[in-house]
Amino acid sequence: MVGTLIEKEKINEHKLIPAEKNNVEELFTKLNDALRLGNEFKSKVSIAFNTVDGPMRIETTVWSLTEKYIQIKSGVLIPLSSIISIEY
After folding, report:
1. Residue 14: what are its φ and ψ, rounded to 5°?
2. Nearest alpha carbon to residue 83 among 52, 43, 56, 65
3. DSSP label at 16?
4. Which of 55, 46, 53 is nearest to 15 (CA)?
5. Do residues 49 and 24 lie in contact, with contact meaning Cβ atoms separated by under 8 Å?
6. So where are the chain's domains?
7. Res 61 pLDDT > 90
8. What is the average per-residue pLDDT within 52-58?
9. Residue 10 — very low, low, confident or very high, per pLDDT cuts 50/70/90?
């Protein structure tokens, strides 16, 4: 998987920027599946995203999904445009 693994609580310490390739349309189905896994089964997924310091990734439960963001624990929002990949 792409990116340096960081704790999800540290995500706000990094400035998120758009991924080199806009994957939103391709990833939307996976993000919906990740949301379902989190809500129904409390399963975690690995999400890689782009920052000014390079690619980072976290392992977390997706709490909600909108057209522009995913929300994880503690109300942290990750812009969909920053997501590089998602694995579950």
Report:
1. -120, 140
2. 56
3. B
4. 53
5. no
6. 4-87
7. yes
8. 97
9. very high
